[in-house]
Write a structure and sequence with these properties.
Layout: E1 2-11, E2 14-24, E3 29-33, H1 40-47, E4 55-59, E5 66-69, H2 81-86, H3 90-108, H4 115-134, H5 137-149, H6 166-179, E6 184-188, H7 196-208, E7 212-216, H8 220-226, E8 229-234, E9 237-241, H9 245-280, H10 287-299, E10 328-337, E11 340-350, E12 355-360, H11 366-374, E13 380-385, E14 391-394, H12 408-413, H13 424-430, H14 447-456, E15 465-469, H15 477-489, E16 493-497, H16 501-504, E17 510-515, E18 518-523, H17 526-548, H18 581-620, H19 626-659
Parallel strand pairs: 3-7, 3-8, 5-6, 6-7, 12-16, 12-17, 14-15, 15-16
Antiparallel strand pairs: 1-2, 1-4, 8-9, 10-11, 10-13, 17-18
């Protein structure tokens, strides 16, 4: 459908792409992957026709439409939300104009038997069918579905777009592009401004309704669920894999290993051949064999191992100064802007060393509560920071606050103090800004490079409470993994505001959900939280079914044939008689899954308790090495977490049974 041939791009005499060729086919869902600065966004701009390559061609058929969502855009519209989204159907107005023009022409013609008249009738028929298909009530319905799926509520539809933040304006643009249904969708970091529920809606839309998709995203779970092809950009070349990202990682490693083994075997073969030639070069009896080996050596097609980009971020947070046992204590905290109550009654305690996540739809107050903790805005209720708490804060727009007109080195030099100023070059090198890269102006950096530069500020002073608001936006996969490990290794307390499920998985032990003006605590990791949300919504669905589908009696005339159960409360009606066999089986499966989670949690507790008993036996026997006490403390923390997961699983099972009428 779209053909890229011998594409090359150079910036400042440096090659970004070197003779790249590939084809985008119908129904391809391609993930463009590579390190920050590899050229992913540039590739999308070239395909969209917004940037010209140094050489090569991008062949787009005349009838193929392209929709492009950039990472950053300047929006100046003054319409309401629904008016702005309605622009997506601007092509329908063109169809109406064409139809009216042809209709007027048809009224004036009298050559009813001519080929031209027949062609005119055929064209009007096609236009009429297109208009009927796209201009019915479905257009309004599709707009509402898209907006609600992307997190808007109906009361937002008539609000001016100027009232919304940049992230919400990007959602409006995304809705417009999706509703246009282009043949090829080019999406550059579409999940950066979406919450988890909106990301899941977008996943479903792209897999069920979109044509070809080419996307850049560092949300591993998202691209795994959406894509079926991965194109890696590395050191000016591309490597094309017909699989999703997780499978690509395995195949990529296998390819490099196979190349390396083949290269090593060939090198041994070449060495043996050269040694034979050198040993018998001057022996007449071996002349024929020597000549044969020389010809054989000349014919060998040399294997090369693909050059691997080995530049790697080195990130480790400084040791955390000891804080009080409870760095953050909130009691009835609330925040309102005028008549709009963002949240109220937030009550929770974060212990020293805990790593927690703030999740929920955008606009529900996650960043607002962070600002309350930072003391940047007034609030109601009581919020106390523990003894000796030192906060390191990474704001959601931290990278955008950088001065684009100064260099990378000057950006850090202006905030560094004391001995750190003598180590700036070393720090920048650890963050892959070594050599000439430190003299680049900030404005020419990619989004991920700016995020890395902003992250350096957190390393300039030891802290014990890290607050990270969307820290993974624009970071590539490898850098995200390194950041995740650095946070795991950090011995202080961490609050992460993020929508990245894969990043949060295994990192946080507690989730705070923001929604409906409340802040709810959920023990366990992000996927335990999502599973609980799914069970809750299923339970809600089950509760609604009996009321939504009353069963009338066999007679409407009264007497013994009348079934009045529809007038009774749902709880008074036996549930097993109200559901189908399939629904009963699904209920049983739900309960079995919940019971298995409880059993698994109990087994985990028993295993940890056995390990603790072994350690305590060693201590009692006189083993007083530091490592044994560290292990005992670690196991104690694991036991606390396992107990919390067991309690959570038990509550989920009880709630599920109650909602299904099994108690």
């Amino acid at each position: 459908m779209i053909s890229i041939q011998n594409l090359s791009v150079e910036f400042s005499a440096k090659s970004l792409f070197d003779g790249i060729s590939y084809v985008i086919n119908k129904r391809d869902r391609i993930a463009l992957v590579g390190k920050n600065g590899a050229g992913k966004s540039t590739m999308l701009k070239i395909i969209a026709g917004l940037q010209r390559p140094t050489s090569g061609t991008v062949a787009v058929p005349q009838d193929v439409t392209i929709g492009y969502l950039p990472q950053h855009m300047t929006l100046t519209d003054t319409n309401t939300v629904i008016e702005e989204v309605r622009k997506a159907f601007g092509h329908i107005r063109e169809l109406h104009v064409q139809y009216d023009r042809l209709s007027a022409e048809l009224a004036e013609r009298t050559d009813y038997d001519s080929e031209g008249y027949a062609r005119l009738i055929d064209r009007m028929t096609v236009l009429s069918e297109q208009i009927a298909m796209e201009d019915g009530d479905g257009g309004q319905a599709e707009m509402e579905k898209a907006l609600i799926g992307l997190g808007f509520v109906r009361s937002d539809f008539e609000r001016p777009t100027s009232e919304f933040s940049g992230g919400w304006r990007m959602r409006i643009e995304l809705a417009k592009i999706l509703l246009q249904r282009p043949d090829v969708l080019l999406l550059d970091e579409p999940t950066n401004h979406l919450d988890i529920e909106s990301i899941q809606w977008l996943e479903t839309f792209l897999t069920t309704k979109a044509g070809a998709v080419v996307l850049v995203s560092h949300d591993r779970a998202f691209i795994d669920n959406v894509t079926n092809r991965t194109i890696e950009i590395s050191l000016g070349k591309i490597y094309d894999y017909a699989v999703n990202y997780s499978k690509y990682v395995v195949l990529h490693q296998e390819r490099i290993e196979q190349q390396r083994r083949a290269y090593e075997n060939q090198q041994k073969q070449i060495q043996d051949t050269e040694e034979f030639i050198e040993r018998f070069r001057y022996k007449a009896t071996k002349a024929v064999q020597v000549q044969s080996r020389m010809k054989q050596l000349a014919k060998i097609e040399r294997i090369e191992v693909d050059e691997v980009d080995t530049s790697r971020l080195s990130l480790r947070f400084p040791p955390a100064p000891r804080s009080g046992d409870y760095p953050v204590i909130a009691d009835g905290v609330g925040k309102a802007y005028g008549d709009h109550q963002v949240f109220d009654g937030a009550t929770f305690t974060i212990k020293r060393g805990e790593k927690v996540a703030f999740v929920g739809k955008n606009g529900e107050g996650k960043s607002t509560l962070v600002k309350c903790i930072m003391g940047e805005i007034p609030f109601t209720g009581h919020l106390k920071l523990g003894h000796n708490v030192k906060i390191g804060y990474f704001a959601q727009n931290q990278a955008q606050l950088l001065d684009g007109e100064i260099t990378v080195f000057d950006t850090i030099d202006r905030v560094a103090v004391g001995d750190i100023r003598t180590k700036i070059r070393d720090i920048l090198g650890a963050f892959m800004f070594g050599g000439e890269a430190s003299d680049k102006k900030v404005k020419v950096l990619s989004g991920g490079e700016k995020t890395r530069l902003a992250m350096i500020r957190l390393l300039l002073e030891p802290v014990n409470l890290l607050i990270l608001d969307e820290p993974t936006n624009h970071l590539d996969m490898a850098t995200k993994d390194i950041l995740k490990q650095a946070i795991k290794d950090f011995d202080g307390t961490v609050i992460v505001v993020s929508h990245d499920r894969e990043f949060l998985d295994g990192l946080v032990e507690k989730v705070y959900e923001f929604g409906g003006g409340r802040v709810r605590e959920c023990l366990g990791g992000i996927y335990e939280f999502l599973e609980k949300k799914k069970l809750a919504s299923l339970a809600e669905l089950e509760r609604e079914k009996p009321q939504a589908q009353p069963q009338p009696g066999p007679s409407a005339s009264g007497g013994k044939g009348v079934d009045t159960s529809a007038d009774k409360p749902a709880e008074a009606v036996p549930k097993q008689g109200r559901v189908s066999y399939t629904e009963q089986r699904e209920r049983q499966r739900m309960v079995k899954r919940a019971e298995k989670k409880v059993a698994d949690a109990e087994a985990a507790i028993a295993d940890i308790e056995a390990q603790i008993a072994e350690v305590e036996a060693k201590i009692a026997a006189g083993n007083v090495e530091r490592e044994i006490f560290d292990l005992h403390a670690s196991l104690g923390k694991q036991l606390d977490n396992a107990m919390s997961l067991w309690e959570l699983a038990g509550m989920e099972l009880d709630d599920l049974k109650k909602s299904l009428g099994m108690e």
